[in-house]
From TrEMBL:
<dbReference type="InterPro" id="IPR015797">
    <property type="entry name" value="NUDIX_hydrolase-like_dom_sf"/>
</dbReference>
<keyword id="KW-0235">DNA replication</keyword>
<dbReference type="InterPro" id="IPR047127">
    <property type="entry name" value="MutT-like"/>
</dbReference>
<dbReference type="GO" id="GO:0044715">
    <property type="term" value="F:8-oxo-dGDP phosphatase activity"/>
</dbReference>
<dbReference type="GO" id="GO:0046872">
    <property type="term" value="F:metal ion binding"/>
</dbReference>
<feature type="domain" description="Nudix hydrolase">
    <location>
        <begin position="4"/>
        <end position="128"/>
    </location>
</feature>
<keyword id="KW-0479">Metal-binding</keyword>
<dbReference type="GO" id="GO:0044716">
    <property type="term" value="F:8-oxo-GDP phosphatase activity"/>
</dbReference>
<keyword id="KW-0234">DNA repair</keyword>
<keyword id="KW-0460">Magnesium</keyword>
<keyword id="KW-0227">DNA damage</keyword>
<dbReference type="GO" id="GO:0035539">
    <property type="term" value="F:8-oxo-7,8-dihydrodeoxyguanosine triphosphate pyrophosphatase activity"/>
</dbReference>
<protein>
    <recommendedName>
        <fullName>8-oxo-dGTP diphosphatase</fullName>
        <ecNumber>3.6.1.55</ecNumber>
    </recommendedName>
</protein>
<dbReference type="InterPro" id="IPR020476">
    <property type="entry name" value="Nudix_hydrolase"/>
</dbReference>
<dbReference type="GO" id="GO:0006281">
    <property type="term" value="P:DNA repair"/>
</dbReference>
<dbReference type="GO" id="GO:0006260">
    <property type="term" value="P:DNA replication"/>
</dbReference>
<keyword id="KW-0378">Hydrolase</keyword>
Length: 134
């Protein structure tokens, strides 16, 4: 099997716990599926730098700090990916749809469909956000 492709994925978390999801634009595999914003790490780039670059390119947001949270591998028909999820509570700017994608702030995540590799993350994330109340 081909070596996994590293992907940097960012979960922006507001003070009220809401997180930002984006819908994959037309022309990409799984167009119309919801995901946390991010993209492939380029050669010679750190994961955090890739995360910051993708947020500027896709949403016009400057991520000021982010903490590595978890890493998930998934084999799709089109790619074997290694997803590096980061949580950021500190950024500058309002999300803009720079690639024509829809996006949405969500409490309990209710948008669907979600990218298959991202589905288990939602439950783990709820433990981070609402731990005591579950
Ligand atoms: N950003 C993001 N990607 C995810 C998530 N879950 C998940 O399986 N992926 C997978 O990770 C890969 C991300 O690649 P991408 O195509 O979005 O990256 P990119 O923007 O650099 O693509 P490009 O090749 O068009 O420049 C895709 O295979 C996608 O299916 C997620 O929650 N967020």
């Amino acid at each position: 099997m081909a070596a996994p492709i590293d992907v940097a994925v960012g979960i922006l978390m507001r003070d009220d716990g809401d997180v930002l999801l984006a819908q994959r634009p037309e022309g990409k595999p799984y167009a119309g599926y919801w995901e946390f914003p991010g993209g492939k790490v380029e050669a010679e780039e750190s994961i955090l730098d890739a995360l910051k670059r993708e947020f500027v390119e896709e949403l016009g947001i400057a991520v000021l700090s982010a903490e590595a949270w978890c890493c998930v591998e998934h084999v799709y028909p089109h790619a074997h990916v290694r997803l590096h999820f980061y949580i950021s509570r500190e950024w500058r700017g309002e999300a803009q749809s720079l690639e024509g994608q829809a996006f949405s702030w969500q409490g309990r995540v209710a948008v669907e469909p979600l990218l298959p590799a991202t589905i288990p993350l939602i439950e783990w994330l709820d433990r981070v956000r609402y731990g005591q109340k579950l």
